[in-house]
């Protein structure tokens, strides 16, 4: 009879412990299995031109940011000015957009209204390529080296501080290594 109450109590205590541990973790530091591995081979149309395709193979040889965004993403609105400043202040920085689960006209209108910080923006309307890329949600930003290896993944909206203290120094380090 006591066991009948003891098992749910033990289960509840274990659940509370896991919840407590989870609450102490930084949600922006979700480990990505792709960090340290090559960007998946993706070939997607651009947001601007449906008949123009770009592959990740074509991007090899340069250090770049791959920013996952969408016009429906509220957090992307918060991050977008940071990307605009990064593009303006660092014209040699290559920023590739990755429009995720969006509608082309909505994405084009969004970039027209807010500015376009991207060298090119890839279009993934169904989110299938995003699954290959290990996208948890938007926005996310990947730093990719010249060999096409993902060196860093930032989850959530990138702040100015994130860009200055983490992203830009890493990009500069990767450029210097080659």
TrEMBL record:
Subcellular location: Cell inner membrane
Keyword Electron transport in annotation: no
Short name of one Pfam family: Redoxin
Alphabetic keyword roster: Cytochrome c-type biogenesis, Disulfide bond, Membrane, Redox-active center, Transmembrane, Transmembrane helix
Entries under InterPro entries matching the protein: Periplasmic_diS_OxRdtase_DsbE, Redoxin, Thioredoxin-like_sf, Thioredoxin_CS, Thioredoxin_domain, Thioredoxin_ResA/DsbE_sf
Membrane-protein topology: Single-pass membrane protein
Xref: CDD domains: TlpA_like_DsbE
GO biological process: cytochrome complex assembly
GO molecular function term, any single one: disulfide oxidoreductase activity
Domain (Thioredoxin): residue spans on this chain: 33-176
Cellular component terms (Gene Ontology): outer membrane-bounded periplasmic space; plasma membrane
Top-rank taxon, per record: Bacteria
Keyword Disulfide bond assigned: yes
Transmembrane segments: 6-25
NCBIfam families per UniProt: dsbE (TIGR00385)
Similarity-based family: Belongs to the thioredoxin family. DsbE subfamily.
UniProt protein name: Cytochrome c biogenesis protein CcmG, thiol:disulfide interchange protein DsbE
């Amino acid at each position: 009879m006591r066991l009948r109450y003891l098992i749910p109590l033990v289960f509840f205590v274990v659940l509370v412990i896991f919840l407590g541990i989870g609450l102490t973790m930084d949600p922006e530091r979700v480990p990505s299995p792709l960090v340290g591995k090559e960007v998946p081979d993706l070939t997607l149309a651009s947001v601007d031109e449906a008949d123009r395709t770009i592959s990740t193979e074509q991007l090899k040889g340069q250090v770049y940011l791959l920013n996952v965004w969408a016009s429906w993403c509220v957090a992307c609105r918060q991050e977008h000015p940071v990307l605009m400043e990064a593009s303006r202040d660092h014209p040699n920085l290559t920023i590739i957009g990755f429009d995720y689960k969006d509608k082309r006209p909505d994405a084009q209108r969004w970039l027209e209204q807010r500015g376009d910080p991207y060298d090119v923006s890839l279009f993934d309307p169904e989110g299938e390529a995003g699954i290959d890329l290990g996208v948890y949600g938007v926005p996310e930003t990947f730093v990719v080296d010249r060999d096409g290896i993902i060196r860093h993944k930032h989850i959530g909206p990138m702040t100015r501080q994130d860009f200055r203290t983490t992203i830009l120094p890493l990009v500069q380090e990767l450029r210097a290594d080659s």
